[in-house]
Amino acid sequence: NKFVYSFHEGSKEMKSLLGGKGANLAEMTNIGLPVPPGFTITTKACINFYDEGKTLWPSLIDEIKLHLAEVEKTLNKRFSDEENPLLVSVRSGAVFSMPGMMDTILNLGLNDKAVKGLAKSTGNERFAYDSYRRFIQMFSDVAMEIPKVRFESLLEEMKEKKGVHNDTDLDSEDLKVLVEMYKKVYFEEKHEEFPQDPMKQLELAIKAVFESWNNPRAMIYRKLNDIPHDLGTAVNVQSMVFGNMGDKSGTGVAFTRNPADGENKLFGEFLINAQGEDVVAGIRTPNEISELKDIMPEVYSQFVDATKKLEHHYKDMQDIEFTIENERLFLLQTRAGKRTAHAAINVAVDLVDENLISKEEAIMRIEPNQLDQLLHPMFEPKALADAQIIAKGLPASPGAASGKIYFHADDVVAAKARGEKSILVRQETSPEDIEGMVAAEGILTARGGMTSHAAVVARGMGKCCVAGCSEIRVDEASKVIKVKNEIIKEGEFISLDGSAGTVYRGEIIKIQPELSGNFEKFMTWVDEFRRLKVRTNADTPKDAAQAVVFGAEGIGLCRTEHMFFDEKRIPAVRRMIVSTTLEERKKALDELLPMQRKDFYEIYEAMGERPVTVRLLDPPLHEFLPHGDEDIKSLAESMNIAFEDLKDRIEDLAEFNPMLGHRGCRLAVTYPEIYRMQTRAIIEAALDIKKSGMESILPEIMIPLIGDVVELKYVKKEIEEEIQLVFEERNDKVNYLIGTMIEVPRAAITADEIATEAEFFSFGTNDLTQMGYGFSRDDAGKFLSDYESKGIFEKSPFEVLDQKGIGKLMEIAVDLGKKTRANIKLGICGEHGGEPSSVEFCHRLGLDYVSCSPYRVPIARLAAAQAVI
Length: 869
Ligand code: PEP
Ligand code: MG
Known about the structure:
It is a single chain. By secondary structure, the protein is of the alpha/beta class. It folds into 4 domains: 236 residues, ATP-grasp fold, A domain (Dna Ligase, domain 1), CATH 3.30.1490.20; 90 residues, D-amino Acid Aminotransferase, Chain A, domain 1 (2-Layer Sandwich), CATH 3.30.470; 135 residues, Glucose Oxidase, domain 1, CATH 3.50.30.10; 305 residues, TIM Barrel. It contains 35 helices and 31 strands. It binds phosphoenolpyruvate and magnesium ion. Phosphoenolpyruvate (PEP) binds next to strand 25 and helix 31. The site of phosphoenolpyruvate has 10 residues, from strand 25 and helix 31.
């Protein structure tokens, strides 16, 4: 039962026992780098601490003492020594780095005796008492929760009394007085003397680290980041070295490569005569690391060698902390350096080229969602850091956008015509806002979730969107946003970070990311490994072409309703819907046919030989209809019918639950001629493109919202009749497939029957989640955030596929579908098709492809490769 490990007893493989920091200190020690000696108290000890009712048990204390003695012997220093005292740092170190936990106490071991020893051994009394003063404050604040201000105000008073500005202007006599005052504060707060016994100091510090594992901040952080609560934290106790002992001492931080762009060149900074916090605190301006070469050439070359050794050893870019004490170099920490996506790709590819890692390792190093950063224009980092945050919403569609705010689609369109950049701000968007969404730089809504209209459409367009931003109040009538105590008026600038969901005041400058050669190279490796194909959800030739650039291998979902919102088409669409006779409806459909045929032709063209799945019309019809009296009047006039009649007809079409209403195949049951028109357009366009030389064209016609095979049978018979008609008229043929979405739970569990009619399935996990959970897609955003904040759901199931429940429905459908039709083609086209953990699930399910919005295609490709490795 060993709970304490000297650094020379551990290794980097022991991370779960020693924590990240402890494991790396051990590893550095063992590969012969200069690490100040010390030891790690394990995460298991932390768990035990809680089992023991939050006490340090006697045998643990004995073990700690034993290791302390070893450190004392190695350094020939002793706790409380009046000649040459041992001082240590105490740091927490969990398996995953965790802000919110206790961080660091320096100079532990200082007391009334040791301070004299420190003065002697360094020949600097002022330094010794300053260290003592700082230690009392740090220990009291970090370990004993005594407010820092109690000490800081005394320091300020002292400076005022002395008539000086800087701490450094106080002499050792002043500092001695301060030490006594600080001890008094400790007594007032804790009703006991400041502990003089270093062992007692150490025990209290260790207890504080263990207890910080369960402080509220740490618990929330774990919840948010999916870190189990029973891991515990380790404690690292390490002998102090001093970077603040004069001009031959210093401290710094360096990355082995540039964390912004990955350039293979040492990157970092240092301060002469300083301790670690001084670099972080940013009070003095640090020097660039290369300048160390001129100041201490020996130490510099030693450091450079150490960084190379570490990078080779860890086979990754490292972030290293070091201290120089009287021209002696010490390494205090190493870890994998945090980096931008751009740097991550460059480093991974370079490391493969340098034969340090394999392609597989390189692929696993990149977090798929990180690729987002590379695909969208981004804010210039410094400008972003200076910008004022006004609210946070859902990161609905990544990207960075700045513009003047407008509250109506028309105003956005008009602004664009004037050459202005604008942001469309709406309570929530509806299909009527499409034109405005197209014209806007970005979209901000106060309501709606990750699959709300705004989110889905914006992602499809690759347009930045922050949705469900409930902190703001959108007053569309007065054309203002109210947030906290501020008002932002129409025409004022805001900026949106769609990857973080953050809303800023004002305009922030942007830079265009480059898709570097290394990115291309990396993605070809990704494609060598993955089995899943990646298609895209695209409704326009432009989106389709963009997706091809990003590597899409086909269209998995072309939502044809999106083609109906066009300004020029909407009158015909409206006439089609409100007409009461078949004859009238056919007339309207005849107008739409050539437009649809052209749409499909251009999409086939953009996709080349790649497969294209076209889904027949899905949304609730009333979405297309005018709402204001003015609009109704003008439609009535154009149709030559009475205003009142039209108004009645529109009211008839309204539904209480449109998402569960008259949509998808249900429309085709009522009005088969709509699907017939669309099918005709799909097939005629295919015949046209075949004639132009694309022999392999194979349109895939997809029928939405099937719940029962009888619905499918009916619709399929209608459209097959239409196809035969076209073939006869044209005296030509093409191959085609007819399949269905699996998005109604009943379809999933009767998939064996459905498969008798369907040649392919595409999982519509948006609706499957809606109907499987019974969460309305339109409304659930309002309360799902409570589920998330209360930890009931980690993530909204509309965002990350619920593998247990909704995934189970998919699994059942896959099994049943294959029973009937062994080679049935299987895909997914819900929003989950671009979410990495859901992609991995689809790989395991054995689907043939995932389909996602163009900008998520590279992410899905990488996730699919990682699923194999
Ligand atoms: C779905 O339901 O998952 C789907 C792709 O269709 P839509 O989002 O258009 O309803
Ligand atoms: Mg659907």
